[in-house]
Amino acid sequence: MKRYIYEKVVKDLGKKMVFITGPRQVGKTYLAKSIQSEFKSPVYLNYDDIDDALTIQKRTWPQSADLIILDEIHKMKAWKNFLKGTFDTRPENQAFLITGSARLETFRQTGDSLAGRYFHYRLNPISVKELAGNVEPSTAVSKLTMLGGFPEPFLSDSEDEAKRWRHQYYTNLVREDILDFSKINEIRSIRLLIELLKKRVGSPLSLASLARDLQIAPNTVRKYISILESLYIIFLVRPYHKNIARAILKEPKVYFYDSGYIDGNEGKRLENTVAMCLLKHVQYLQDTQGEEINLHYIKTKGGKEIDFVLSREGKLQQCIEVKLSDSDLSAQLKHFRAKLPGIPMVQLVHNLHREKELSGTPIVSAGNWLAKLSA
């Protein structure tokens, strides 16, 4: 399948370098290699390969190449200065595509030696929108909730194959990537933290509570969560805190890039799937249009909550409540409709017999609504 950022990346390669980051096995290399078909003389080089590494270091790829794909280049010492010099002295009409996962994203954000020389895209797992036209939206939601959106387990169409993939995937992440960010004696605590987080998807995180369970300091928990974010295992949805009459809780909620990995009922997995689709929508608009759009949630100290809200330039744009089967209007939306007059609200229901509108609030099929997002 042609990934959703394909056309945008090809277009931008004619202007600047393009960086593609994202989780391991989300399809970055597949995307990069598929883009080769748009060029006459492309070259793919992976720094993990000894021969390719030497070619990169010595810049001995053909000067006639019109596309140079450099994978895992961030493992090279002083790679930013290398790219800066290489890009600035390249032959006319030679494009550069740079791919990588956790470390590339982390190192990309430090220093400014590449400022103004590249566009950045975040490649995310498959979503309902990306499947639109090939899979019926409700079916897409069910499959993503069960199998997750990483290409290999999703395309296997098998729970058993997805479980096998997942076991190997997370074993490799812990053995290889987490060690890049932490010490070997921290691995056990990080593994236990992952298991705890799998059970707390969609709930505000208490660092103090997690610290007690793990018998470590809250600041250490914060560090480990940052590592898991950097590795694209989890992402945090932070509270929105403007124009709300009552004080709200400050803790973020945690979600996994892989909906099939969480430890929860179908409702929690559905919420995770919606969160992933919304994150992908937001990041796509940020990366392709430079929009200042963000994903949040609202929960007051009194316990009133809206699952997700979208904001643009700091202003609340839409409130989104997620339900597995309840077609009655959420009491939470009723409460916030009075508190937030004029803000569009929608209730997404997966198992919905008929779409309708109650008290000015649409109650719609989760699949149909997610299929209309930007990515």
Count of domain modules: 2
Give the amount of beta strand, in percent. 15-25%
**Silhouette:** globular
For the CA atoms, what is the radius of gyration?
22 Å
Sheet/helix structural class: alpha/beta
Distance between the termini: 14 Å
Mean pLDDT: 92
Give the % helix.
Answer: 40-55%
Quick structural gist:
This protein is 42% helix and 19% strand. By secondary structure, the protein is α/β, with parallel strands linked by helices.
Describe the protein.
- 42% of the residues lie in helices and 19% in strands.
- Helix 11 crosses helix 12 (218-230).
- The two termini are 14 Å apart.
- The mean pLDDT is 92.
- It has 375 residues and is an alpha/beta fold.
- It has helices spanning 6-12, 28-35, 50-58, 79-88, 102-108, 128-131, 137-147, 151-156, 159-181, 187-198, 207-214, 218-230, 266-289, 331-339, 366-370, and strands at 17-21, 42-46, 67-71, 95-100, 118-122, 234-239, 253-256, 293-299, 305-312, 315-323, 345-349, 356-358, 361-365.
- Strands 7-6-8-9-10-11-13-12 form an eight-stranded mixed beta sheet, sandwiched between helices.
- The chain is globular and about 65 Å long.
- It has two domains: 6-122, 3-Layer(aba) Sandwich (Rossmann fold), CATH 3.40.50; 128-370, no CATH class.
- The protein has 15 helices and 13 strands.
